[in-house]
Hints:
Blueprint: E1 18-20, H1 21-28, H2 32-41, E2 47-49, E3 52-56, H3 57-64, H4 76-81
Antiparallel strand pairs: 1-3, 2-3
Amino acid sequence: MPRQASSPETTPPAERLAYSVDEAAALTGLSRDLLYDEMRRGHLAYLKIGRRRIITRQHLEQFLAITPKPQASPGSELKAANRVP
């Protein structure tokens, strides 16, 4: 029996490509009102499809700045502070 694509209702929220505002709020732990305010201010990008606002995973990552950043090695701040110009 061929495997069918899972519907959005059965896909775990963290694996989806896009979310409703309510789903994005639940996923991030932020309030709906805060997300709407940030969209209105232009800080959180979204797609408008008909009357719906859809927030993609990429939009959320950019908004929350959760893109992985290189970790500094332990003690690197101390070495930089002790550097003589």
